[in-house]
Amino acid sequence: MSASANIERLIVMSERISAALEADIAALEQGNARAMRAIEPDMQQLSAIYVREASALTREAAEAAPAALRARFAQATRRFHDALKRHGRVLTRIRNASEGMIRAIAEEVERQQAPVRTYRPAQPRANRPAAMLYNSVI
């Protein structure tokens, strides 16, 4: 396969992955994590193919491609990297919020299970009133 055809395939793949990432960002911002596309098996497979083909692209092959194709490739790559960065920031924000909520819930449960402290001094054990036991025999 020629270098130009390889670059064309990389452009198409990066555009598809970028679109999936942008759809994920929109879904996460709307609070609908179930609508994420990047975790689907076909997107993961496409990402693996992209990595393999991008690593096979040599500098010489990229420089031998026409200038217009290189410009399109640079633009698609820039869009892909921007989508990846934004996706990472959104996921980090959601993870931090989730961890904060879990931490707050755990602290509240711990607070509720802690013994109640009163302002009066503790009574010695012997002076505390004990339950009285009554039986029916007088």
The number of strands is: 0
Helix content percent band: 55-70%
Number of domains: 1
Helix and strand string, N-terminal first? HHHH
Describe the protein in words.
- The protein is mainly α and 138 residues long.
- The protein is rod-shaped.
- The termini are far apart.
- It has one domain.
- The protein is built from four helices and no strands.
What's this model, at a glance?
By secondary structure, the protein is an all-alpha fold. It has helices spanning 3-29, 41-56, 59-64, 67-113. Helix 1 (3-29) runs antiparallel to helix 2.
Key terms:
138 residues, mainly alpha, 4 helices, rod-shaped
Task: List strands and helices in order, with pairings.
Blueprint: H1 3-29, H2 41-56, H3 59-64, H4 67-113
